[in-house]
């Protein structure tokens, strides 16, 4: 997949993850894309390690989208746990 495909998957996976877990998160399109891209990489890696499958097949593959969304939710959970510990 090309860089444009990763950005699009990151954007949509980040938006879906934020919709599944509403709350106070850093806003903005760039942060959402970063959450989605990191989530996609994490989801792909976890799919390979846990299930032994190549879950990042292509842009239109369902396994790619599921891995990116699940990974984005995990990244968002980790962010909330780390950011929740900060005292302002």
List keywords for this structure.
88 residues; mainly alpha; 3 helices
Describe the structure.
This protein is mostly helical and 88 residues long. It has one domain. It is 73% helix and 0% strand. It contains 3 helices and no strands. Helix 2 packs across helix 3. The longest helix has 23 residues. The radius of gyration is 13 Å and the shape is globular.
Task: Work out the helix count.
Answer: 3
N-to-C order of helices and strands: HHH
The major sheet is characterized as:
none
Poorly predicted ranges: none
Write the topology of this structure.
Layout: H1 3-20, H2 29-51, H3 62-84
Helix pairs in contact: 1-2, 1-3, 2-3
Short description:
This protein is mainly α.
